[in-house]
Amino acid sequence: MQKLRHAVVGVKGVGRSHLRAIRQVPDAELVAVCDLDREAVEGVARELSVRPFTDYGALLASGGIDAVSLCVPHGLHAPMTLEALDAGLHVLVEKPIANTVAEADRVVEKARARRLTVATGHQYRTFKSARTMKKLIADGEIGTITRVLWTWLELRPESYYARDAWRCTWKGAGGGVLMNQTSHDLDLICWLVGDPVEVSGMIGNWGHEAEIEDFVCATVRFANDALGSLQLSTLTPRGLSLRQISGDRGTIDVRDVKSLASDADDEIRLGRHSPPVRSCIQNAGAITAQAETRWETVPTAPGEGGQVTFMRDFVSAVRDGHDPMVPPEEARRVVELINAVVLSSFTRRTVRLPVDREEYEALFRKLCDGETQTPRYR
Ligand SMILES: NC(=O)c1ccc[n+]([C@@H]2O[C@H](COP(=O)([O-])OP(=O)(O)OC[C@H]3O[C@@H](n4cnc5c(N)ncnc54)[C@H](O)[C@@H]3O)[C@@H](O)[C@H]2O)c1
To answer: pLDDT value at position 215?
Structure first.
């Protein structure tokens, strides 16, 4: 069978890891690269003996390509994905799938109508920490999920934002810590717990020049009525991030999360509640009776995760006609959750999903035009 002929668009940042991954998947072949930066793209093309393009339209029209990886600023994700789908190509688009849920709707609709694969780069699902948590939940170790406490905390100095202007703007990035750093975590939370149905949140900018948010607190109710508290920040030193998912039978607890950006080893603890919380509530005689919690450290799931695993999944989804690990509807769910937090923050109300597309588009336009600004708390 012919290999999947793949092109990478955007070669200076994360595009490099797509270039490496494609070359490690036997069923895929890198055939072209595209970037606005002529010197960079020609250098990569020479090194890898593939065709260079500085114009995306010319790449799509060139023929001999089955799929593109889009490793470009967020604001280009949906428009470039739609163009690729119109050209009959499969797409691996970096996260997020779009800046707004209305744009994500258009991508989902077109991908399904044309029967083309769109995968979104939420590759953290392949990390051993994430897989371990998923298995504990699927095996019923914590029972019915009732509560989630999830923080993502790291520091991003001003130099991080100064390097790429697009990251600092609503138009370029669709948001800050939510869209850029933690869309991966929001995907994990939804993958582990389920669909969010109701959201209230506050976003703000405490410490950076950028126009987007650097701190978020949000409360989420999920379809199974579990409640979640999220704190996400690029203002806090590493080492304090915490994940806790509780059910009536047990709790998963991860302190000082290491897998915030790579497939690093985390210590994952499982606490088993005995008796299960619900039966303790109903049957315990003493009015302050507690369920006992016995803790153990869980061995993490075997195997490595990361970009190569994710690329292999994308290629097999295209070739075998199954959904990729992150189908476009699930990538849209992340954008919808983010849009809901932002909408809640600006309207000071709880937002029920589905998000009102027109209302969010109107707010987003104002944020992009500078008519509405991220609250500054300093
Ligand atoms: N999955 C992950 O773990 C991960 C990690 C880092 C970044 N990302 C995502 O990857 C994307 C890119 O981020 P980055 O850090 O690599 O950004 P970057 O700014 O370093 O790179 C973007 C590249 O796109 C090129 N580009 C911009 N406009 C273009 C156009 N119209 N046509 C062709 N090329 C164009 C730029 O020249 C640059 O080479 C973002 O969506 C980001 O969120 C994902």
So the answer is: 98
Supply the pLDDT for residue 5. Answer: 98
Cα(147)–Cα(165) distance, integer angstroms: 38
Cα-flanking dihedrals φ and ψ of residue 246, to 5°?
-115, 140
Q: Which fold has domain 4-121+306-325?
A: Rossmann fold (3.40.50)
172 Cβ closer than 6 Å to some ligand 1 atom: no
Q: Helices marked H in 123-276 — which ranges?
A: 128-138, 158-163, 170-173, 183-193
Nearest atom in ligand 1 to 180's CA? 43
What CATH topology corresponds to 125-305+335-369? Dihydrodipicolinate Reductase; domain 2 (3.30.360)
The total of other beta-carbon atoms located within 10 Å of residue 162's CB is 13
Question: Domain coordinates of the chain in residue numbers?
Answer: 4-121+306-325, 125-305+335-369
Q: What is the pLDDT of residues 333-368, one digit of tens each?
A: 999 999 999 999 999 999 999 999 999 999 999 999
Q: Which residue has the least CA distance to atom 21 on ligand 1?
A: 13
Ligand 1 touching residue 12 (CB < 6 A): yes
The verdict on the CB of residue 14 being under 6 Å from ligand 1 is: yes
Please indicate whether residue 311, judged by its CB atom, sits closer than 6 Å to ligand 1. Answer: no
